[in-house]
Amino acid sequence: DTAVSQTPKYLVTQMGNDKSIKCEQNLGHDTMYWYKQDSKKFLKIMFSYNNKELIINETVPNRFSPKSPDKAHLNLHINSLELGDSAVYFCASSQGLAGNTGELFFGEGSRLTVL
Amino acid sequence: QQPVQSPQAVILREGEDAVINCSSSKALYSVHWYRQKHGEAPVFLMILLKGGEQKGHEKISASFNEKKQQSSLYLTASQLSYSGTYFCGTEGPHGQNFVFGPGTRLSVLP
Predict the structure, then answer these.
(1) A4: which of A107, B7, B16, B89 fits an S-S bond (Cβ 3.0–4.6 Å)?
(2) CB nearest to B41's CB, from A97, A98, A109
(3) pLDDT tens-digit readout, B41-61
């Protein structure tokens, strides 16, 4: 049973399109995250939700909108895709906040390529 | 503020040892270490919560010097399976601002 699962694994799309990535965790964790990993491998936090409430919202264009229907799901919707959005997007979860003894469990990643 | 990692990359032969360093200009509450193999997700290795704490995971261990605001990851008698990018993650005094370092790419050759 996969602990943190993301779909789709691969996304290839044209500039200007809108796309969504879904994430689900079955670990019973109360905090979920979206991370972006660019071609240089930097892992940058984008959003964090704790019990369905947004707690971290880094400087991310407002074309990116997270939605958490319940604490086991955190989806990411991206409007008007740009070339610079090409990256691997990782969903993660933790019990409590990451860093505060909160080990992060990552999904397999969703590789987005914008043409 | 993002911690600094050194070296950026290291190449080893099987059986050799390596040290990866992680340092911050701000006071640290804890340091986490993760490994990411090529094409895979990062995987948690260990957390160090107290100053001076050392933890081990098979032949991989780490230390945390709170005064110097730094941590070191020690890989002993490296194996091919150790290849990957190692990330440290640090946080401030109240569990906030958890941020990953830029990563250290480790390649172990036969």
Answers:
(1) A107
(2) A109
(3) 999 999 887 666 666 667 899
